[in-house]
Specification:
The protein has 227 residues and is of the alpha+beta class. The protein is built from eight helices and nine strands. The chain has two domains: 74 residues, 434 Repressor (Amino-terminal Domain); 130 residues, Umud Fragment, subunit A (Ribbon). The protein has a nine-stranded mixed β-sheet.
């Protein structure tokens, strides 16, 4: 049982005064005192501040008391959720999911927000590219923004940005039995492409990066103005 009733009376406050100070109704506060309702995790510090005591004092904790009251267990089991902080990453261009037309350049000063966890997971070098074309449907739709990690590392089944004869495209990649690679579109209407080890040299094929996340068309870059 918490000690807020005892502390309130010692301080000479009424239930109404405390309830108004911490922003709840008197009936709600009364339920905190009776133990009918546990004190929420975000309310406990407010009450402690108003009484000018510690939260441990309200909960009846002491240095010699190793038992964890049920009130504490409730607070830990139902934490207050805090929105995740965002950071800005650049939108550097658009990439066609196919070979027929090249993507369009975008202003390097354009930026869009992502959760900070993206940076922690994939590093500070991640950028946005806009998807064009249908060959990666349904995984990547036209106008989706792709979060891309630059670099030539990849594993079987990764979606990569690949340069073939100075034309960039987005495809799923697999190692072929002959030592080459297979580029596989997710859209079954498009054909798979196989490149032998010789082709990799002849066609100057390079992996430019991986697509690690796709964000829908509600978040869009603005094309650079043409003069």
């Amino acid at each position: 049982m918490n000690r807020i009733k005892e502390i309130r009376k010692n301080k000479g406050y009424s239930q109404k005064e405390v309830a108004e100070a911490v922003g709840v109704t008197q009936s709600q506060y009364s339920r905190y005192e009776s133990g009918a309702t546990n004190i929420p995790g975000d309310m406990l510090p407010k009450i402690a501040k108003y009484f000018n005591v510690t939260t441990d004092e309200i909960l009846g904790l002491s240095e010699n008391n190793n038992e964890v009251p049920s009130q504490i267990k409730t607070i830990e089991t139902h934490p207050v959720l805090v929105p995740e902080a965002e950071v800005m990453i650049p939108v550097v261009g658009s990439l066609r999911c196919g070979f027929d037309t090249a993507g369009m350049p975008y202003d390097y000063n354009d930026q869009k927000p992502v959760p900070r966890s993206y940076i922690l997971k994939w590093g500070k070098s991640i950028v946005f590219n806009e998807a064009i074309g249908n060959s990666m449907l349904p995984t990547i739709r036209p106008r989706d923004l792709m979060v891309c990690v630059p670099g030539d590392g990849w594993e079987d089944g990764d979606i990569v940005i690949i340069d073939v004869n100075d034309t960039d495209t987005v495809k799923r990649i697999y190692r072929a039995q002959d030592g080459g690679i297979d580029l596989v579109p997710d859209n079954e209407k498009y054909k798979e492409m196989h490149y032998t080890p010789k082709d990799l040299e002849e066609f100057q094929i390079h992996i430019l990066g991986r697509v690690v996340k796709v964000i829908g068309p509600d978040l869009q870059p603005k094309p650079r103005r043409r003069k």
